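User: Here's a structure from my thesis project, written as structure tokens. My advisor, Dr. K., wants to see whether a designed sequence matches the one we expressed. Can you design one independently, without my sequence as a hint?
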């Protein structure tokens, strides 16, 4: 299996109350598979996604990505795996406002000390923004900003892309176009895709749909 999680637990404190968010979740994802994580608001979808992506350490349990254990080393080792092996598309885009589309797309390479403007331009052209390279985020529509975010996620040729409600801030037409683009790219590149969504119609477009309820995973 390309991505394997075993017995993940995660909780949060709300005042004196302890809220169990992940309660022993285990799952496996094949290389090249498209999996949707669904569930009600507050069910733990994003917490699980962040844990699988190496962004949020579980209280207990393990995550292996292509044979590498994500949380075995320190923060530096985790950051290196995230930068070199994964891409992430956020609901809120998370573009740096002072950087152009080209510079935002280059960020993963800059973090890895391998800036590659030619590759960044090619990635932006791939998502249909070849004529918007020098534009700042404020000069782009929501759909265009999310296309920049997809280009950024592709920069280091990751084996897996994690997407957290990638259409959540977009109207249905723009969101549909963004998902069409994302599906097209990951299938061409044979990239694994794990998506969090609250949209039941969207979740039917993947290879598999998993639902989180009360901190437990079902189908």
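Assistant: Designed independently from the structure alone:
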């Amino acid at each position: 299996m390309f991505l394997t999680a075993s017995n993940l637990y995660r909780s949060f404190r709300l005042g004196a109350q302890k809220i169990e968010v992940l309660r022993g979740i285990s799952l496996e994802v094949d290389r090249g598979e498209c999996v949707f994580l669904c569930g009600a608001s507050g069910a733990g979808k994003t917490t699980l996604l962040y844990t699988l992506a190496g962004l949020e350490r579980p209280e207990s349990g393990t995550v292996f990505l292509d044979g590498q254990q994500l949380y075995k080393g320190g923060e530096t080792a985790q950051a290196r795996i995230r930068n070199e092996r994964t891409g992430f598309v956020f609901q809120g885009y998370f573009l740096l406002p002072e950087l152009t589309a080209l510079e935002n797309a280059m960020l993963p390479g800059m973090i890895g000390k391998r800036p590659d403007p030619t590759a960044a331009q090619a990635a932006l052209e791939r998502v249909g923004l070849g004529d918007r390279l020098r534009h700042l985020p404020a000069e782009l529509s929501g759909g265009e900003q999310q296309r920049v975010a997809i280009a950024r996620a592709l920069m280091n040729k990751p084996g897996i892309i994690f997407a957290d409600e990638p259409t959540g801030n977009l109207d249905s037409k723009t969101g549909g176009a963004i998902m069409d683009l994302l599906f097209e790219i990951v299938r061409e590149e044979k990239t694994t895709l794990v998506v969090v969504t609250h949209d039941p119609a969207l979740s039917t477009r993947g290879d598999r749909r998993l639902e989180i309820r009360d901190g437990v995973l079902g189908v």
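When you compare it with your expressed construct, this may help: The mean pLDDT is 91.
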